[in-house]
Amino acid sequence: MKIKVINKGHHALPEYQTELSAGLDLRAVLSESKVLAPLERVLVPTGLYIELPQGYEAQVRPRSGLAFKHGLSVLNAPGTIDADYRGEIGVLLVNLSNEQFEVKDGERVAQLVIAKHETVEWEPVETLSDTERGAGGYGSTGKK
């Protein structure tokens, strides 16, 4: 699949790190480093603008290494980029640790996953079909 992209940043386009990777690493485009205090959040620019085909979205997801080692995550994970959005891709990064973290220019701050989706049409009804689970909610499966 080919996706049109404008790169206004000074880093190479995102790449897959391995042959079977699902996500492309997004890099921070910063004129100076940004220190994130505990529980602080910041919108990190990437310099990237994309044009997705209809029926696709781009998902901005946390990087597992940053989450595990430093407690950093993407606050609205996964962040959805719709096919009609033409603005810059930003990463809403949050520091969930008890220590400061310095986000540097070029830092791989998130992953971008391209996913196909369906558009639904609601069909109002009075009842739904029965299932074994029924209306059992959070934590209801696997219990007798």
UniProtKB/TrEMBL annotation:
Pfam families: dUTPase. Keywords: Hydrolase, Magnesium, Metal-binding, Nucleotide metabolism. Pathway: Pyrimidine metabolism; dUMP biosynthesis; dUMP from dCTP (dUTP route): step 2/2. It comes from the Bacteria. Substrate binds at residues 63-65, 76, 80-82. Its cofactor is Mg(2+). This enzyme is involved in nucleotide metabolism: it produces dUMP, the immediate precursor of thymidine nucleotides and it decreases the intracellular concentration of dUTP so that uracil cannot be incorporated into DNA. This is Deoxyuridine 5'-triphosphate nucleotidohydrolase. It comes from Flammeovirga agarivorans. The lineage of its organism: Bacteria, Pseudomonadati, Bacteroidota, Cytophagia, Cytophagales. The gene is dut.
